[in-house]
TrEMBL record:
GO terms for molecular function: structural molecule activity. It is found in: Gas vesicle shell. It comes from Desulfosporosinus acididurans. Its main location: other. The keyword Secreted does not apply. The keyword Transport does not apply. This is Gas vesicle protein A. Gas vesicles are hollow, gas filled proteinaceous nanostructures found in some microorganisms. During planktonic growth they allow positioning of the organism at a favorable depth for light or nutrient acquisition. GvpA forms the protein shell. It comes from the Bacteria. GO terms for cellular component: gas vesicle shell; vesicle membrane. Pfam families: Gas_vesicle (PF00741).
Length: 73
């Protein structure tokens, strides 16, 4: 009995489509201190999604586009 190995390749377009469809959240907290003195603190929350995906999940938790910090700029 022969073993058949199947390798599926994905291209960049499929990966971007999946990320925009499902969304991705990157949450980072970085603190740099020296001898107990805090020098730099960075807090970042990055959300990458399509507008449709954002609106779908934002409405589920009660947010609107007007509530978003995007509208402040």
């Amino acid at each position: 009995m022969a073993l058949i190995k199947s390798v599926e390749s994905t291209n960049l377009t499929e990966v971007i489509d999946r990320i925009l469809d499902k969304g991705i959240v990157i949450d980072a907290f970085v603190r740099i201190s020296l001898v107990g003195i805090e020098l730099i603190t960075i807090e970042a929350r990055i959300v990458i999604a399509s507008v449709d995906t954002y609106l779908k999940y934002a409405s589920a938790i009660g947010l609107t586009l007007a509530d978003s910090s995007i509208m402040e700029y």
